[in-house]
């Protein structure tokens, strides 16, 4: 991989991070996260139509402009990465990754026609695809040719690569649950942390998990049980993911040269997520904290994708 292609990948990573965070800010702010008086003001109006032009005095104007500019630049860079890197990549894996970038960009552009939406599937598609784009870029940033005469799976114990793959898979599910929680307006659904009003397991009935059923706005008390179920599922997923991250980080620190710093960073990011989760509940879901939660999610996924590549290649 040439230095130019590697530089384009890192620039694209920064742009995609900006796109994902800007999208999260607009989505959360339009839902009323951090509004006053909390929580009576929360989830009382539908998200603003995507075609509406916000006032230049509003932060939406600058955030949305930044989002669109960064997304457009990222799309151009994805094409450049695929075109300039194709012949230099001697294996199929990075070429497939480049194709994935273009497919994800096209999917997100298409999904933008339906955004914002009260249908959770749209929110989940935006969040998961945006995070997946960042993950693919992080994987590409970590990629390097396999040494001559060696197979990638022979360089490290196969169990480590499987653990990394399982952790990455659970992370994607957890991101989807987080997007569903966001789409279901669950920020004020639970009192207390880590339990939800004294409950430790999602209540019976999965109405909140139907991703094609639109969320009712203004919020109604009859749906509180469904929102609590989604929130609890997200919290349980966080515990499972944290346990896998601890196992993976410990194994990487012991076995993978050049990846120890990334493993420690991943541990720090996951710890930060738990701290922010508690703050969001205890402080009435301040907008800045909710956006920071999204920033750390992006960084953690990118770090995990980078580590996944390293466990494959050594």
Describe the structure.
With 314 residues, the chain is mainly α. It has one domain (3-313). Helix content is 67%, strand content 0%. It contains nine helices and no strands. The chain has helices spanning 3-31, 59-85, 92-111, 120-142, 152-155, 158-183, 224-255, 260-282, 287-313. α7 packs antiparallel against α8 (260-282). The longest helix is centred in the C-terminal third of the chain and has 32 residues, at 224-255. The protein is globular and about 60 Å long. Mean pLDDT is 87; it is low at 149-155.
What would a concise description of this structure say?
This protein has 314 residues and is an all-alpha fold. Helix content is 67%, strand content 0%.
Mean of residue pLDDT values:
87
Please estimate the helix content.
Answer: 55-70%
Main sheet: strands, sense, barrel: none
Radius of gyration: 20 Å
- Globally, the shape reads globular
Q: What are the SSEs and their pairings?
A:
Layout: H1 3-31, H2 59-85, H3 92-111, H4 120-142, H5 152-155, H6 158-183, H7 224-255, H8 260-282, H9 287-313
Helix pairs in contact: 1-2, 1-4, 1-9, 2-3, 3-4, 4-6, 4-9, 6-7, 6-9, 7-8, 8-9
């Amino acid at each position: 991989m040439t230095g130019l292609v590697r530089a384009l990948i890192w620039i694209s990573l920064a742009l995609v991070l900006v796109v994902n965070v800007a999208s999260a800010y607009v989505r959360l702010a339009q839902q009323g996260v951090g509004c006053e008086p909390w929580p009576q003001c929360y989830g009382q109006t539908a998200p603003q139509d995507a075609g509406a032009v916000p006032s230049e005095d509003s932060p939406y104007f600058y955030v949305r402009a930044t989002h669109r500019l960064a997304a457009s630049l990222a799309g151009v860079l994805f094409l450049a990465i695929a075109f300039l890197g194709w012949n230099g990549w001697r294996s199929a894996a990075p070429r497939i990754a480049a194709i994935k970038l273009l497919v994800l960009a096209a999917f997100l552009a298409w999904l933008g026609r339906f955004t914002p939406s009260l249908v959770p599937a749209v929110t989940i598609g935006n969040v998961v695809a945006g995070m997946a784009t960042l993950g693919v870029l992080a994987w590409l940033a970590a990629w390097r040719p396999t040494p001559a005469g060696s197979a990638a799976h022979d360089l490290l114990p196969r169990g480590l690569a499987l653990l990394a793959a399982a952790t990455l898979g659970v992370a994607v599910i957890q991101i989807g649950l987080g997007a569903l929680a966001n789409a279901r307006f669950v920020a004020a659904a639970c009192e207390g942390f880590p339990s939800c009003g004294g409950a430790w397991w999602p209540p019976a009935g999965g109405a909140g998990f139907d991703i094609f059923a639109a969320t009712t706005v203004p919020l109604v008390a009859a749906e509180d049980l469904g929102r609590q179920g989604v929130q609890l599922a997200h919290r349980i997923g966080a515990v499972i993911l944290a346990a896998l991250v601890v196992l993976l980080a410990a194994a990487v620190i012991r076995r993978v040269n050049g990846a120890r710093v990334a493993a420690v960073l991943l541990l720090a990011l996951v710890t930060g997520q738990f701290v922010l989760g508690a703050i969001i509940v205890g402080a009435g879901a301040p907008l800045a904290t909710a956006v920071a939660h999204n920033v750390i999610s992006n960084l953690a996924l990118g770090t995990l994708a980078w580590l996944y590549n390293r466990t494959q290649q050594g």
